[in-house]
Amino acid sequence: MKLDQLRPADVAKCAEIEKVLFPGDDPWSSRAFQSELDQGYYYVAARSDDGAELLGYAGLAVVGRRGDYEAEVHTIGVVPHAQGQGIGKALLRALLTQADEVSAQVFLEVRTDNDPAVRLYEAHGFQKLGIRKRYYQPSGADAFTMARPAQAPARDEVAR
Question: A GO molecular function for this record (predicted)?
Answer without folding.
Answer: protein-N-terminal-alanine acetyltransferase activity
